[in-house]
Amino acid sequence: xxxxxxGIQPSGQLTLGNYIGAIQNFVKLQDExxxxxMVVDLHAVTVPQDPAALREQTESVAxxxxxxxxxxxxxxxFIQSHVPAHAELGWIMTTLAYMGELERMTQYKEKxxxxxxxxxxxxxxxxxxxxxxxxxxxxxxxxxxxQKQHLELTRDxxxxxNKRYGETFRLPEPYMxxxxxxxxxxxxxxKKMSKSNPNPNSYIALLDEPDVIRRKIARAVTDSGREVKxxxxxxxxxxxxxxxxxxxxxxxxEEVERRYEGxxxxxxxxxLAEHVVAVLEPLQKRYREIRGSGxxxxxxxxxxxxxxxxxxxxxxxxxxxxxFLPPA
Length: 328
Ligand code: AMP
Ligand code: TRP
Prior knowledge:
Oligomer: single chain
Order of helices and strands: EHEHHEHHHHEHEHHHHH
Largest sheet: 3 strands, parallel
Bound molecules: adenosine monophosphate, tryptophan
Number of strands: 5
């Protein structure tokens, strides 16, 4: 059975972008693959985090996985730092990577633009991500478009290791939605929808109240003209709303266009808001139930055990291949 691995950082509110770009595919893939889904707290601390907020957010992201339909009977759900082998292989990946290739990472360049005190962890962030993926020999990695470059680096590191020490790692492929791999901001369709945007009207948080969702969608920018037509070049804002509609209603882009043929944006936006609410309202209800129960502790413990068994085997093999003296 093919393997799947992915992770999301516990740093701030998850958005509809995270849901459409990543979490929906976590759920979709779990029926026919062996899946590992984690909360990447070791990645989150590449920028300073308030300890209490980090604990709260880590639990919150794990609960959102469950609330969105990731099923702990099928998928291993765990916290990255609960499986220390990630950090160990992360170090080994750092020794394989070149400064030049890390300097080329666009996410690194964006996060550090204009800054002087740049944490070294931010620089080696992609080598830890490579370790996350390779430690499970994952075939598929469900992520949004912004992670494609990190996946390419992961493949390069895996190939480099295999060449030097013999075939060890499988080369992973990104798994992205056909439309919606990059959900854009509601106030500016040239920017990615992001939880770090200071304007809360630019994103829909998965835990936004239904009326907040309705208001944000009503305010979302549209393009000139009045046709509901998918054309990311000429109609970036409306095309973004169409991809959100398609994912939340479970229909194709063509079906959305057909439904609103000859109508303006008004009815389309009203219906869009209701489709988003129809997905997020039940998710929020499950989220509150999960946070109020002891279920999460059990799920995370079992998930970490399942993950550790695989991860520790990989690291032992890697160390043997590299010539580390095994402990007696
Ligand atoms: P992050 O919030 O950066 O940890 O991202 C978690 C996952 O959500 C990654 O797979 C991202 O590629 C994905 N993601 C984040 N923002 C978006 C977006 N606006 N559109 C599509 N996918 C996204
Ligand atoms: N870098 C990813 C992000 O910011 C998070 C991440 C860490 C990840 N390790 C991973 C995603 C492994 C997929 C697989 O979104």
